[in-house]
Specification:
The chain is built from 14 helices and 2 strands. It is mainly α. Strands 1-2 form a two-stranded parallel sheet. The model has no long low-confidence stretch (mean pLDDT 94).
């Protein structure tokens, strides 16, 4: 347990997200559909960034309180416990990006079939934004099906609390008239696409440094949405830092972090222009190819 003080900017952020989500869903019948889509996608993607903060031990020194803040399943499809364990494994891995060691790797082992097709479909940014959300759900379902046979009790530990939370949210969505299926289509789908935009160019297997992480110099409005995780090399360098402290760390040690990053993108607009229809990287991890 950490001894640091409560990080009130993150507490205020959590309150903003949850109050904004409740207000938006309650008032959705009186709002134009584009407003519901844009505001809803922002809030749910922002909530994903908040979950990322709580996984790294923010905003309090009490892990259970942090988990309570982050575990509300606004996205419906991804259990917090699974995200928590996979993301911390990603950070602890000595072989970031390798599909045998990093659960968040986008690379494949070279086998033909569904995995290769899914990777190829998401190799361009446009493919990732359009096809990535349903493919992410299918990948989770596939992995959990295998885990059900290997460790059914652990699966129940992760899914029972999640499904209980989903039931409460689903009841609220039906009460407001938005409904679960409209919510999934109008809010969760674009929110997941926004999150996939952030992660599209975060890591490359051929980058230097143990984290193999890239940096986006100017996050702009998306920097706020991603809670400064566009400074991804800085985040891997100091994963203990709260989101609002990352820019100062980047400025203070910029030369080393830029050299360590290997890949530096000027902005998310530059990523869109370069990779919208162009493949970002190889599908098969180079370590697998060499082996």
């Amino acid at each position: 347990m950490s001894t640091r003080a409560t990080e009130w900017p993150t507490v205020a952020l959590a309150a903003t997200i949850y109050l904004g989500w409740i207000t938006l869903t309650a008032a959705q019948a009186w709002l134009p559909t584009p407003v519901v889509v844009v505001a809803g996608a922002w809030l749910v993607a922002w909530h994903g960034s908040l979950q990322h903060e709580t996984i790294h031990g923010h905003p309090t020194r009490f892990p259970r309180i942090n988990a309570l803040i982050g575990a509300v399943p606004l996205s419906l499809w991804l259990p917090y416990a699974i995200y928590h364990d996979s993301h911390l494994t990603h950070h602890r891995s000595a072989h970031v990006t390798h599909p045998d060691h990093d659960p968040e790797s986008k690379y494949i082992r070279g086998a033909a079939g569904a995995a290769r097709l899914a990777a190829a479909a998401q190799s361009t940014l446009l493919g990732r934004l359009i096809l990535g959300p349903p493919l992410a759900v299918l990948a989770l379902a596939s992995g959990e099906w295998r885990r059900a046979r290997r460790a059914p009790l652990l699966l129940l530990r992760d899914w029972v609390p999640h499904l209980a939370g989903v039931a409460v949210i689903a009841a609220w969505l039906e009460l407001t008239g938005l409904g679960v299926w409209r919510y999934l289509l109008l809010v969760v789908y674009p929110a997941t696409a926004l999150t996939l935009l952030r992660s599209f160019a975060e890591h490359r297997a051929d980058l230097p440094g143990p984290s193999r992480a890239a940096t986006v110099e100017r996050g702009g409005l998306l920097g706020l949405l991603y809670l400064n995780n566009h400074l991804h090399t800085a985040h891997h360098d100091r994963p203990d830092l709260a989101w609002y402290r990352l820019p100062a760390h980047q400025r203070a040690d910029r030369a080393r972090l830029i050299a360590q990053a290997g890949a530096v993108h000027a902005s998310y607009g530059a990523i869109v222009r370069r990779y919208a229809l162009r493949r970002h990287d190889a599908l098969v991890h180079p370590g697998v190819r060499e082996r």
